[in-house]
Amino acid sequence: MEYAKSQKYNTPELLAKIMGPNPFKLQEEMLLNHKIPAGSLVCDLGSGQGLTSVMLVKDYSFKVYAADLWSEPQENRRFFYQMGLTLEQITPVKADATALPFEKEFFDAVVSTDSYNYWGRDPEFLDAKLLPFVKRGGYIYACVPGLKKDCHDNLPKELLLSWTSEQLVYLRDIIYWTEIVNSSRDAEVVSIYEMESNEEVWADWLNQENEIAVNDRKTMGAGGGKYLNFIAFVLQKK
Fold first, then answer.
1. Which of 44, 59, 163, 212 has its CA 20 to 30 A from that of 153?
2. Cα 88 to Cα 161: distance, rounded to the nearest angstrom
3. What's residue 14's pLDDT?
4. What is the pTM of this model?
């Protein structure tokens, strides 16, 4: 991919705010040929410091609620102002994905970039905790870090250089995620696929100097990336 939309965010200041493999590029690939109309009300679920939320407003013309449990809305609001956005365009919200503080059928779509795996592994999550807040016919676009093949019974030593077995529980293969999304009674699975993004988005992250990125270099420098992928899925509420 050329990541044409992501290139405008390729600045040291913005990349210093990323919290993992490049979320701009992941989101751009995930939303290729998306079906969410411009002007839609979208929840950026697990928005972190709001980078993906800014992109959703500026490059896709959505009105966005940036929902995250671990970032502070005041800080994100300041960042949004710095990026030239108003509260009419984007609203930061401190929210737990398993207890969203919105009205039912509030959103036209939910987008989640590199975070859904933290809460969405419960097969009941979609129908009980997320889809009630999406309008009928609305969409969910999500991508998660994953494994090319499940190896939890015999974890490669390369992966254990940076992460514990408990942390690796969050990484699963496409067979696992296919079972999760197909368990939903209230959504149709439009697609689920292994993404092209992997080496390049990891390289952008490993170039950062925060301690988490530095720690992740151990696994990736030892060739651990050969076990990893990103998985995307698109759902439409029935």
1. 212
2. 45
3. 97
4. 0.97
